[in-house]
Design goal:
One of its GO terms (biological process) is SRP-dependent cotranslational protein targeting to membrane. With 681 residues, the protein is mainly alpha-helical. The radius of gyration is 47 Å and the shape is elongated.
Length: 681
Amino acid sequence: KMAAATAAGGAGAAAALWSEVNRCGQNGDFARALKSVNKILQISKDDVTALQCKVVCLIQNGNFKEALGVINTHTKVLTSDVIAFEKAYCEYRLNRIENALKTIQSASQQTDKLKELYGQVLYRLERYDDCLAAYRDLIRNSQDEYEEERKTNLSAVVAAQSTWEKVMPEDLGLREATYELCYNSACALIGQGKLNEAMKKLRKAEELCRQSLSEDSDVTEEDIEAELAIIHGQMAYIMQLQGRTEDALQLYNQIIKLKPTDVGLLAVIANNIITINKDQNVFDSKKKVKLTNAEGVEHKLSKKQLQAIEFNKALLAMYTNQADQCRKLSASLQSQSPEHLLPVLIQAAQLCREKQHAKAVGLLQDFADQHPASAAEIKLTMAQLKIAQGSVTKACMILRSIEELQHKPGMVSALVTMYSHEEDIDSAIEVFTQAIQWYQQFQASQTRGAKPKSPVHLSLIREAANFKLKHGRKKEAISDLEELWKQNPKDVHTLAQLISAYSLVDPEKAKVLSKHLPSSDTMSLKVDVDALENSHGATYVRKKAGKLTGDNQQKEQGQGDVKKKKKKKKGKLPKNYDPKVTPDPERWLPMRERSYYRGRKKGKKKDQVGKGTQGSTTAGSSELDASRTASSPPTSPRPGSAAAVSATSNVIPPRHQKPAGAPATKKKQQQKKKKGAKGGW
């Protein structure tokens, strides 16, 4: 367009200006070219070529909004046929993706440039099937230096399908010669769950990236690390999925320290760190959540990524006891995705934290009624809440209402366990019966005629029989065991169980059935006796219990009962031990149990310490001793009896008295302890 500007220019000043525009365009100086174009438009304001050049200069300078304004202002001159690509590109860069799609589709002629942009728009709209078809058409019908970029975009579409739509990616036959292709291939493998293979691809991508960037002398090590950040982030994600959370966390934090300019990458890493922290390290999570709120994040990530971040924000609000914020976020998520289960579960969890269990169950029940497709998962959560409340029977009723899970072995096991806990054996047996009947009906609908029962069906019958035997329902167990034996008459274990059950109910029948047991000869085990005796455990027992022979026997007879005596360690004697003095024969007995024990010595002031009620005195004990007065009644003294004591007697006021048994000083107490320690000798 700029090359054509010189041909469109007139004489004089206009020609010079067009020449300047052309020269600046070739040099990449679009700011200066824009000034010249504006001067041309002053001469001729409706010049189509000048307007086109102005739009291009604005786009090259990154002024997409201003460029779109010029296009919309001059719609009569700049028709869709003339400037469709530039308009769609501006809308795409301004994140008006739906408008860009309409502009492309309304263009009368689909040029190669529009097709390239169409593929990008479809990718942003997450219409991956249409996008894949668009890029295949471009690769098939284009031959230029951008073929490698188109293949990279094609592989990115396949990776997105594998990751977000769980579509099995087809082999495109692309040679993974660049690190971008390797990276996209690794993402596709992650979507399939092939984590080890994906990690190998990422390591190869890292190596190719280093090789590619190190060839440029202007690229620094910091630039290389910044480019590798997205690869390292995906490696950390694989580590997290593999349960290597410490390694993943370390790598995530290393990427954050690099401060990459990609806000989308930072938001994903911050979100993943929050999921590792869970309800721990909440302060760190609150700092990381700020990275997910950066400007432009919503245009860098897919809808599912943004949704996951919002879910985690709601959970973090719940963990940090921000109840109102949690309710607000979860309600917003539910309005955006009414059929999604997680917002309702978050709301129910918040209600449970507030001890509103009944309200939480009601909320879940309403959602289950409105969305039958998610009813099973909701009812499982409701049952869990009922169990937490101690309402096991109600939990069982909820679980039994999930028709699609009634026959599953895990559900049967859970129900039987809970009913057994509640000692409701009849209901537990009913659960077994319903599950067995379901398998019988299913088998009848799938096949014609008699056919052996499935392993799951037989396993349920056996478990039912064992349960009935355990709880004394022998007759009911016998019918189950007979059914099992009928299916496999060679099953000796089932036959033995059947005979054991009949022996308690019908001994004659048990005798008849016992004839079907194999003979003892056929039941004999082929055991290598020598090998068994030479085993480690058997050798030890044989040596210990076996008879002595030969020289050992004679030696044993000669020695009699003499045994080797173990050397005893010399006992430690006390420091004050005197060998001339005979030790006390009662030294091993406690001091209180020895014959010469007379009790502890009483303190000098012990007689002066009162043992009566608070405020009473003990002075003049002889006068207060009731045992010396024959006429003293056996009742306690009156509270005022102490007032009769003479004021001249040696009375110690209650505040100056010491409590009974209290040591006079700390030193005396330590001396007593030392004496007690030496009392044994």
